[in-house]
Amino acid sequence: MRDQSSATAHRTVTAGRASGLALGTLGVLAFSMSLPATRVAVQQLDPWFIAFGRAVGATLLAWAYLRITGAPRPTGDQWRRLSVVAIGVVVGFPLFTSLALLTQTSAHGAVVITVLPAMTAVFAVLRAGERPPPLFWVASAAGLLAVLGFLAASGAVHGKFSVADVFLLAAVLLCGLGYAEGGVLARELGGARTICWALLLSLPVTLPVTIVAAVAAPPRADAVTWSAFGYLTVVSMFLGFFAWYAGLARGGVAQVGQVQLAQPVLTLAWSALLLGEAVTPASIAAALVVLACVVLIQRTRTRPTLPADRARRTRVRRAVPTAPVRRADGADEAPSPVLR
User: Fold this and answer.
1) CB-hemisphere CA count at 13 Å for 11?
2) CB neighbours of 307 closer than 8 A, spacing ≥ 6?
3) 87 CB contacts (<8 Å, ≥6 apart)?
4) Of these four, 92, 204, 206, 215, which has the most CB atoms within 10 Å of its CB?
5) What is the pLDDT of residue 229?
6) Contacts (Cβ under 8 Å, ≥6 apart) of 262
7) pLDDT one-digit tens code per residue, 107-158
8) Residue 74 and residue 109 in contact, taking contact as beta carbons nearer than 8 Å
9) Neighbours of 208 (CB within 10 A)
10) pLDDT tens per residue across span 252-271
């Protein structure tokens, strides 16, 4: 009976990891066009309007989704954790990438964003209580080096460290935090409701900033720019997170988060398809190396751990022997164990 239970549990875990990987890949595919779309949008629209306006538009979609599905309201603790998600992915990442791409290209941004999987893994350890094995870190580092090598060979790495790079690093830091916290919270709320509630929680901030930005610099743009803004609103800020957070919740934040290693390569692939840039043999080789690293990562096992306070509450009670008991007739009686 125990063997059957173990086999069933193993199949369940394997299926969860496979579905998590599939959903995470879908989310990365959706996010891979975010930087090119942002780069297009900031040419004619104010970066503050882009960052906060797309959140307001996504909030309207989130409100409709929550009303239609009749989602229950989060608890007090969940609201607190949703605020971390909101700061990371609703406000921080869109704002800092918009400011950075005013002066930098999306290809340059892809270089800095390459460290996002590693940052997500770090926050998975700090916030999600996950403990990836050494092989995980080796494969992650190999994938990171492969992407950086490809970007350097393709000419995407150029220029000196600038203020735009500071903005991009701030975006990566906040996004990694928002990904890890949202992935854990999605185990309780679901991926769709996690991003929807985070968007609604952000509305008191995003709406006033959007109005001020629109008044200060009235948005005027052509159809292409508005299409890019629409993509950022509907896909990057809304639908993409449905799949992404669900994938993190099912497959593990650290492991599924490493699928992002393919995002810089996908970003440049979109540039080739949409802008007519040539796809070199180096890009194909880098994609194969990254794919191999992602596969290796998915074959590792992450060891979950409990937070300290929760571990104390759920620790195993162990039997501690007591001193022998002296009976009335003078004989010693075996002690009864005390559970601690």
Assistant:
1) 5
2) 129
3) 174, 177, 178
4) 206
5) 96
6) 25, 28, 32, 287, 290, 291, 294
7) 777 777 777 877 887 787 777 676 777 877 787 777 777 766 766 666 655 5
8) no
9) 12
10) 887 787 788 788 778 777 76
Written as six digits, the tokens of 195 are 């991003």
151-168 burial code (b ≥16 CB/10 A, e <16): beebebeeeeeeebbebb
Contact between residue 59 and residue 199 where contact means Cβ atoms under 8 Å apart: yes
Q: What are the φ and ψ backbone dihedral angles of 325, each rounded to 5 degrees?
A: -100, 130
Helices 191-216, 76-85: crossing angle, 10 deg rounding = 50
Return the residue matching tokens 């490809």. 150
The H-assigned helical ranges of 217-332 are 223-231, 240-251, 253-257, 263-275, 281-298, 308-314
Radius of gyration of the chain (CA): 24
- d(CA 240, CA 109) in angstroms, rounded, equals 19
Structure tokens at 80: 């607190």
DSSP string, 96-115: HHHHHTTTS-HHHHHHHHTT
Which parts of the chain register pLDDT below 50? 1, 3, 5-13, 304-320, 337-340
Picking from 123, 114, 107, the residue whose alpha carbon sits closest to that of residue 293 is 114
Nearest Cα to Cα of residue 264 among 162, 126, 112, 125: 112
